[in-house]
Amino acid sequence: MPKMVRVYIRSVLIGVALSCCFVAALLALDVAHLRHLILNSSVGWLAVIMMIVFNTIVFAGVQFAIVVMGQAETPPPARGRKERVTGPLKPALAAAPASKPRRD
After folding, report:
1. From CA 69, how far away is CA 8, in angstroms rounded?
2. Is the pTM value of this prediction over 0.90?
3. Do residues 45 and 91 make contact, with C-beta atoms less than 8 angstroms apart?
4. How many helices (H) and strands (E) would you count in the chain?
5. Range of the domain at 60
């Protein structure tokens, strides 16, 4: 199996675990009375599944992005002569074209 596929599957599994923990915390703390709404509804289980699935998509995507960006190679440090400014700096002058007066 290719390395990136394994990384993606691992990211999805981590996303599922984070999502389950997040939804459990939402329900345990009764944020916005979600626990009350879910327990008093006949289709509350569907709301829990939807929250887990949609949060899994978010957390898995973020986890995968973190892993992929962490694989970037840093460029080697620049070698060679480093020039130093020794004298006072002088401002650069730029000529602006003359504008014609507007007639309104």
Report:
1. 13
2. no
3. no
4. 3, 0
5. 24-68
Handedness of CA 26, 28, 33, 35 (dihedral sign): positive
Neighbours of 100 (CB within 10 A): 6
Q: Is 35 domain-assigned?
A: yes
Relative orientation angle of helices 3-29 and 44-70, to the nearest 10 degrees: 140
* 11 touches 64 (CB < 8 A): yes
The amino acid present at 30, given as its one-letter code, is D
List pLDDT tens digits, range 22-48.
Answer: 999 999 999 999 999 999 999 999 999
Number of structural domains found in the chain:
1
Give me the amino acid identity at 20: C
